[in-house]
């Protein structure tokens, strides 16, 4: 097993690592005195502990952030840019380390985490590049009036992330920083290690306290961030129920929110496609290989035209059977364990409900027999799924694909849209007119045609309906970390 590297100055137990959290440029324990075990999902062993933070820790991070902001706000956009480029450079030197750390802590396979660790510095650089786009507007006025707007950072902002891409999502501090804010990062409680080590890389680049990493549970640290009166902007990536709870909590202080939430994304396959390519595209779009389907954008509902239905299911099953399930540390592994016990049990519950409600189990559906430990779930395909089944309606967030048969265009569009989610959609046909017509009909924030998964840097990402609020990755994301002030001068 690869050694877990621990940032300088942190304590190491004989058998496990004790991480501290980063507040005000210092490593420290939580004021609650508690810790949370980080468990390796491949063998259920405790590999580290992280502080179980609380209100007082968040309050300290806010005070430290305010002090750092007083300095950071005096930096020009070009100077902030330079600092962020330096961070990206350091991240690029440590791709393998962070990939392995996430593989051990999250269960996602190493090869997928190498992709994540390569993309994380791109996120930092992307927003550093945009920093000089923070412009106001000037207005046509009478001769004795000058009127313009300026964009101002909020001060201290909160960034709450989920467990599925821990290091890649830690880099989501980028727009807040580029816009001139201090950022409090709260990682998922089961995958905090790479966020803490990410924090370590930032320490001697930015003003002390500009980036704090506060670990702990959602109902404690997460809530404390959302309810803190001096954090006016909160960005959240996670599930719909949590997003809804955050929106309620944020109401008291009228916080500015962005919410990147769950999905139950459709893939529509038309009869003219190359069936093998579409089946391969389905596996890619499901993100089976990178995160066992634990991805908000996974195409977990696949609508296949009846003319090619049997061939498609056979091709999909043949490919799924070849996906190598194994230890996420090994390069040959394609499918690792899912992230934590409760999530494993939830996924297994969905699989049971699919069987009970009459879906046909085409492959998978159990724990792989070669493992007696670890949260492994066989990649699973249900066919003959119908819309009233639970597996057709609720986000499973695991390696479970549901395949539906269709023969009528209007009905398939209605069924594809027949969910409370609206994050992504994936359309397969060689008829690009039909593809674009269908893309327009999708109630989703992002539609791929003939190939799901890839995203171009700088394009907006965010959901329709319950899948979220606001966009990420683009200029509007950067601007959302500022507030606009209008200044009117009367020339006397
Ligand atoms: P989650 O909602 O349970 O938790 C996400 C984060 O929120 C964690 O850090 C958690 O501690 C914190 N949290 C929990 N309750 C909170 C509260 N009341 N106040 C503040 N913070 C709180 O989600 P998860 O299980 O970690 O992640 C899976 C979900 O994330 C899925 O629904 C998935 O679709 C979604 N997701 C969305 C995107 C996107 O960009 N749209 C990306 C990745 C994951």
Structure in words:
Helix 1 packs across helix 8 (218-227), helix 2 (77-93) packs antiparallel against helix 4 (110-130) and helix 10 packs across helix 12. With 492 residues, this protein is of the alpha/beta class. The model has no long low-confidence stretch (mean pLDDT 96). Strand 11, helix 9 and strand 12 (256-260) form a beta-alpha-beta unit. It has 2 domains: 11-261 and 467-486, Aldehyde Dehydrogenase, Chain A, domain 1 (3-Layer(aba) Sandwich), CATH 3.40.605; 266-455, Aldehyde Dehydrogenase, Chain A, domain 2 (3-Layer(aba) Sandwich). The protein has helices at residues 55-72, 77-93, 95-106, 110-130, 166-170, 174-178, 193-202, 218-227, 240-250, 275-285, 288-291, 309-321, 341-356, 390-393, 409-417, 432-441, 475-479; strands spanning 11-12, 17-18, 21-23, 26-28, 35-40, 45-51, 145-153, 156-160, 182-186, 211-213, 231-237, 256-260, 266-269, 301-305, 360-363, 380-383, 400-406, 424-428, 446-449, 468-469, 482-490. The longest helix is centred in the N-terminal third of the chain and has 21 residues, at 110-130. The strands form 5 sheets. The chain has a 7-stranded mixed β-sheet with strand order 15-16-17-14-13-18-19, sandwiched between helices. Strands 10-9-8-11-12-20 form a 6-stranded mixed β-sheet, with helices on both faces. Helices cover 37% and strands 21% of the residues. Residues 160-164, 186, 188-189, 217-219, 222-223, 226, 237-239, 242, 245-246, 260-263, 296, 395, 397, 423, 468 line the site of nicotinamide-adenine-dinucleotide.
